[in-house]
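Hi all, long-time lurker, first post. I run a small reading group and we've been trying to get comfortable going from sequence to structure in the token notation. Rather than ask abstract questions, I figured I'd post a concrete chain and ask someone more experienced to write out its structure so we can walk through it together at our next meeting. Sequence below, copied exactly:
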Amino acid sequence: MFGFLRHKSFSALIHAEFRIYIIARFFFIMVLTMQATLISWKVFEITHDPFSIGLIGLVEFVPAVIMAIYSGYIIDKSDKKKLLHLSIAGNLLLTILFTYITSQQASTVFSQQAILFTIYIIAFCTGIARAFSGPTSFALVSMLVPKEKIPNAISWHSSSWQIAGVGGPAIGGLLYGAKGITFTFTLMIIMMSIAVIVLFFIGPKPPTAQLKGEPMLKSIREGFKFVWNTKEILGVITLDLFAVFFGGATALLPYFSDVILKTGAQGLGILRAAPGIGAIVVMLVVNFIGMKSNQGKWMLWCVAGFGLTIIIFGLSSWFWISFVALLLSGLLDGISIIVRSTVLQLKTPEEMKGRVSALNSIFIISSNELGAFESGFASRLMGVIPSVVFGGMMTIGVVVFTWFKMPSLRKINY
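-- Answer (accepted) --
Happy to help. Here is the structure in token form:
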């Protein structure tokens, strides 16, 4: 039935539990990206203020970072499948809460300010759940496929994320415009429920035996020490932190869609999907052709190109130029994601993957959520367009600095 999976490009997918995991992850990420699109639009609809959109990132960032260090310790000493199951179930509950607070019924009971405040509270709780779901997901991958298939598994792992990242914003924006926010959130509840259900078909994934009973502080300290001493891991996550932190123009997409490009919620969905389309293209190419050498140099050049596309997006007042710029940003960022994720999987011992992935999640969360806040804050100081252009220039500056100060990244070759 799955004979085509024997091709080397599908080698990880031949394993049934990995296929189940990819299905669950796909629906989970689809809902999260739809949710981000709808919530950012709803907040902008209430406030008409780009800074208020940036605050969504901040309220998710704070609990996610605070909990991330602790979550790494819990992940390494717990059944990873069970923990992922619980975190996705928690997100399902939060999606139900989002569905109610954004509904027409809620608007007749609560004031707009009360709805806005509740949205921020639920986003705060989402940050807590993300502190567990992301690192657990990363740590689980290597337990579903043999070690020699990890690079291929990472490509499909990232591809599923990006496909959901394309479908989520596009479907969310289109359904919001056509059917309304409550209908769209109801569909999201169904998809999140599918993710919860299919995970029952993955067997237990208990912790590494020798980690049981290790004191929490010692365990966390060992994780920090490992990341600090492994220069390739420290380098790739630091590069990602600063590049995406400064290049987080997508946080301001509701403003660009409504005020500059005048395309509304449907245009917002298409623009949010654009980076994912680009990432899918490059990840499919990598799946079938592969990156045979000089992965470090490719990563650095692509991050610099990512900064350039953000500058073009910031200066554009034409919808299709903006779309192409964001598409190229996703294509270039996709290479960085593959290199970074593969380095983390191959360089990290199995018994430390929870802690390392949790520390990595701090960098990812910082670059995305805190970057979203930085975009909103900078837009208030400089104006929206200058802040986006400045962010793109800073991203390029980070690459130049890294090229000369961290030569080990240029030499990554796996």
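A couple of things your group might point at:
The first helix runs from residue 16 to 47.
The chain is about 80% helix and 0% strand.
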